Amino acid sequence: MQAATTKLIHEIRRLSLPLRSPDDLSPLVEAAGEAKYVLLGEASHGTSEFYTVRAELTKRLILEHGCRFIAVEGDWPACFSVNRYVKSLPGAAADAKTALQAFDRWPVWMWANHEILELIEWLKAHNDALPAAERVGFYGMDVYSLWESMEEIIQYLERIGSKHVEDAREAFACFEPFHREGQNYGVSAALYGEGCTDEVVALLTKLRTDRGRVEDPQEAALDAEINGLVTLHAEQYYRAMITADAESWNIRDRHMVEALQRIAAFYGPGAKAVVWEHNTHIGDARSTDMLEDGMVNVGQLLREQSDPGEVFAIGFGTHRGTVMAASRWGVTPEVMQVPAGIRDSWEDLLHESLNGADHILLFAGRDAPALMDTVIGHRAIGVVYHPRRERGNYVPTVLPQRYDAFVHMDATTAVKPLAGIPVMV
């Protein structure tokens, strides 16, 4: 073993805390508890332990540190169905499973799973014991729900008898020829100049209002506002994804930050949030090769726009196990084998350093040596995954700069979809 690797393993051991039970999360909860935004990552969208540990952290941040809402890497309309349920808002589903059926667009397993079901049921019971104004919300920050969000805006305008209903119908009619396919719209807008930007901007200029919890206790106006934001940014996203991968990524992450900040403003000064997203979104992009590619992300943008101590990012990773993912976009997911971390990756080093046990690495407030500021590969698994092409799944990363803490789960298992567990391949 090389001397540098031996020293790095020694420092990993020095900075690590054992994770044998939920009680061992206490140092992490205390370290993150004063932050305005606690960002909880994941190395995949299909690993059960990432969901369950994040759920335990979330519960404690709500109970012990007063976090007011959860924001996730999910579509606003589907997540707002869950929000209605946990807060008993008008139109709420009868039970948690029914609320989660709103996640009906691929990748369904990402949020419609048993791990999230347990958290949602806990949150509903927690909220039922609180006054309406103190209940904890659940929201989506993503940008994909272009058509669903347009439909929600029209329904909202109809309910309130707005004079802008016909304006909305006329503006959204521009999208009708594309049959709810974002890629079709993107090709037309980017390559042929047949986009709907002007119509959307003109409509949203008419609709935007400023309000808070007192003025909008049923959250109908907040719902319409964020759906409007999604419509604007989704149009930009689908246009950019045809010609500029980095720019489409940046539009998406900037949208998520703006949505998060608008939700926080709705809750008022001092409101704290727990954010659930992939590591590639919550870990600072400046500590990866994303910087060279001109890409930004939620973790970077929030750090840049916030005061010191207001953002606390926790990454998650695994050495080996199984994961729920798909071989290509849109197909039935599978339980796939996650091979052992490649040699000299962060996953491999953590496995070796910690003797195959689960641990927490806490960087914030501690003296992480310069040796830890080494660029090393760090695994990222998407909803589409090819274990046989494993080396391409690693992101060059300076771990202590990318995160304030890191949770290493040595052996993990696939998430359990509500629709049932496919056969392992």
Automatic annotation (TrEMBL):
Name of the molecule in the record: Erythromycin esterase family protein
One GO BP annotation of this record: response to antibiotic
Pfam families: Erythro_esteras (PF05139)
CDD domains with a match to the protein in the record: Ere-like
Taxonomic source organism: Paenibacillus cremeus
